[in-house]
Amino acid sequence: MVYTGVPSRGCYLCRSRKIKCPGYPVLAKTHFRPYTEIRKPVRKETSHSSSSSSNDEEEHLFNHWGAYAAYTADAASSPLDSTIKITLQDAASCHFLSNWVLLSPPGTNRGIFEFLLPISRQAAQGSPFHLAFKACSLSSFARRGLDPAVERQAISFYVKALAATSDALSRPSVATCDATLATVMLLAIYEIQSASTHGIQGWSFHVSGSMQLMNSRSWKRLDTDLGMGIFVVVRVKLILLGLLQGKPPPTSSEWWGKGTFKDRYALIGLHLTTKTTEMRNELENLLDLDCATLDDFDQLSVIMAKCQALEEHFRKWPDTLPEYFKFGIAAWIHASSANPAEMEALPGPVHSYRGPWVGGIWSMVRTSRLILVNSMFRCSALIHQRTDLQSLPEYATLAQRCADVIGEAMAGVPYHLGWFRNRTALLPTMPSFACGQNGTESSLAAFLALLPLTTMQDHDFATEDQRLFAKGRLQFMAHQFGLRSAAFAEKDYDSRSAQRWRRLRLPVTEVDVAETLQNEYALGPTTEPEEGGRDTFGSVTQSAELTIHSRSQWGDRAQPPEKGPF
C-alpha cells in the first residue's frame, strides 16, 4: 500500500512498515487450533493404544478449554492479565464450590457442605474423595455447554470413585472416617446432577448408605466442627429422602435430633420434619394391609390425633423464631401469564430469606405440613367411611390449610431459582459460597426447592396454574442449573404409595360404597354367641378380621384417577 505520509494507528508491525493496518480479527470468528497440532510432526505410520487415545482426549480437553477460557475472558473485558492460565480442573473445582459449598455466617453453623474444604486439602491423589470430587466438579461444569468429552471424563472419574469407595467400605477402620462419609455424599451430588439412573434413585441409594455410615460412627465425632457439619448434611438428606419417598430414618427421630445447638430454631424444625417421616411411614404400613382388624381402626384414630398434634406444633413454630429466621415479602407480582410454566414467579408475594439454609428449612416445614394434612384427610375418610372428602367434618379447615401452605411454598420458589439475581437490593443478606462472587443463583439453593415443587406439581388442592408452574420450574432446574434428576422427579415421587400424599381422591365406585365394612359384618344383636366371632351383645371380638374390598378406600390398589375438582 502506498505511504501517504500519515503514520498508521494500528499495530506495531503496520506502523513500522508504514502501511494501513487492517485491524485486529474478531475473536468470536477466530478458529482456535490446538497448539500441539501445529507443532506436532505428521507421521504416516502411527500405532494408537488405549492409553494414547486417553491422553489424546485429555489433550484435546485442555486445548478446547484454553480456547474457551480465552474467548470468555475477552468477551467479558476482564482486567486480568490474559497470560494467566487456568486449567480445566481448577475451573471446574471453583465452579462446583461456588454452587454447592455454602459458608456459614460468623458465630453460626448454618453452612452446608463446608466440611468439603478441609477434607479436600488433606485428600491424596487417587483417593476415593479426590476421584469423587473431580467427578462432581466436571459434572457441574459440563452444564456450561463445553465439549461432551468433559461429561465423559466426569463419568470416568465417577466409576473410579465407586470402585475406590467400595474398597474403602470393606475396611472397617476406613469406612467410618470423615473422608469416606464425605465421599458418599459427593457421589449423591453427582447423581443429582447427572441423573445416571434417570431419576433420583441413585441419589437415594447413596443417601441411605450415608445414613448407615453415620449410625456406625461414635458420637464423639460431633465434638468437632467437621463431624458436626457432616452430621447436619446427612440429617438434611435423610429428611429430604423421607419426605420424597416415605423412607423413615434407620433410628428414632430423637437420635437424629441431637446436635446443632448453635441454631436451636432450625433444630426444632428439623426434628419435627423427622417425626413427620416416621408418622407417614407408620400410616403407610397400616394402609398397605390386605385386611384390617378393629385394632387397626383404633390405631387410625391414634395416628390422626398424633398428626393433629404434630401439625399444631408446626403452626406454632414460626411464632418462636427470631427475625433472622423469618421470611420477608420482597415484592408482589401482579401480572399473570397465559403459560404459567414459563413464569419465574406466580402472581402474589415473593418471599426472601437470609440464606439458602433458612429457605431450605422453611421448604421442609411446609412440605411436612402438607403430608400431615393429607394424612388427617385419609384417616378421617376411613374412620367415617366417607368417599366424598367434601362431606368430612374437617374438610373446610384442612382444605384452607392446604391452600395456604401451597401458596407460601410457591412464593418461596423464586428465591431458590435465582429470581433475585438482578434484584439483589431486595435481599436482606447475600449468601456466601466457598469460591467465586456472592450470588443468589446456585445449584444448592435450586436443589432445596426440589422438594416443594415435586410435592405441589400434582397436588389436589393446588390450582392448575400452580401445577403448571411447578412442572415448569422442575424442567428449568434440569436445564438451567444442571440438576437433571429434577426432570424425572415425578416418576420417582410416584414410587411405593407416594401418590396418596398428593391425590386424595380414590377410585371408589358406587358398588364399593355399598360394600362397606358395616354391610359385610352386621353388628345387630344375636341370641347366641358364635364361637370365635360375636358375643351376646353383638360386638365384634378384637381378633375378628375385616376383609377389605380390592378397590376400597383402605387398599387403594387401583390406578390413580384423573385430576378432579381438587
Notes on the protein architecture:
- GO terms for molecular function: DNA-binding transcription factor activity, RNA polymerase II-specific; zinc ion binding.
- This protein folds into two domains: 88-259; 266-566, no CATH class.
- It is 52% helix and 3% strand.
- It is built from 22 helices and four strands.
- The protein has helices at residues 12-17, 35-39, 50-75, 88-100, 116-122, 128-141, 148-169, 172-175, 178-194, 201-215, 225-245, 253-256, 264-287, 294-316, 356-384, 395-416, 443-448, 450-456, 464-480, 489-493, 510-514, 517-520, and strands spanning 291-293, 328-333, 348-352, 545-547.
- 37% of the residues are buried.
